[in-house]
C-alpha cells in the first residue's frame, strides 16, 4: 500500500528512470523532448474548443434567393434589336414607303430618258447649231401656215363676193389635197436622196424613218423610185431581200425625190444620229443633192369611197 501511494504522489513531470540513468548528453536531449511534449499538452488543455464551420444555406434557400434577385437591365444593342425585330409597320409608314418607291421610279425614268439624248450631248457645236436652226425653221413654217389661214379667213369675211372667194379657196385646197393624196403631179424646189445598199443591209424601217424625218422637215411631196408616197403608204421587207412600198417591190439604189424647202430638208437628214448617220453605219452610201426644180410625177388613182358620203347641212 505504501508503495502504491508513493507512486501516485509522484509528480507528473518527474523524469523517467531511463533519463536519470543515462549520460549527460542523452539526458539533455530527453529533457528537451519531455519539455516539448509537456508544452504541447498544456496548450491543448488550455485552448478552447474550436467552433464548427458554418454550413451555407440549403439548395432551396439558395434558389429562393436567386429568384428574388433583380434581373440585369438589357444592353443598348439588345434594346436596338428589340425595337427592330419583330418589325412594327404602321399605315403611315406604308404610305411613305409607297411614295418613296414612286419617287425613285420617276427618277429612274428621268435618268433613262436623259441618257437617250446621249447622241446630242456628244455632238459638235456646229451640229447643235444646225439642229437649232432646223427647229427655228419648223417654227417659222408653222407661223407662216398660221398667217396664211388667217388671211384666208379675213378674205372670206371682207370680200364683196364671198361666194367667188370661197370657190377660189376651194380650188386651191383641192389642188393641195390632190398633191398630198398623190392624184396630181407636183414640181418645185427640193432635194434628191439616193441610197445605195451594196450589202443588202437596209431594211424597211430605215426607209420609213427617212420618210418621217422628211415629212417633219416640211416635205410636201415624196416619191421613191416609181412609187408615190402618200398618207397611207406602208413599207415592208420583201421576200428574197429588198423593200416593197405599198406592195410594189423597188430595187436599189433607192431614189427619193422630195419637194420642199432644201434648206430645211437637207439638215434634217444630216443631224447627229439621224437618217444619214444611221444608214452609213449599215455601210450604205448616201448622197443628198439640192435642186431648184424637182418633178414628182408618179400618180395614185383616186379611189371613190364605198360607204362614206359627204353630208350637207
Automatic annotation (TrEMBL):
It holds the Pfam family DUF881. One of its GO terms (cellular component) is plasma membrane. Residues 1-79, 149-168 are annotated as: Disordered. The chain crosses the membrane at residues 89-109. Keywords: Membrane, Transmembrane, Transmembrane helix. The keyword Ribonucleoprotein does not apply. Belongs to the UPF0749 family. This is DUF881 domain-containing protein. It comes from Streptomyces jeddahensis.
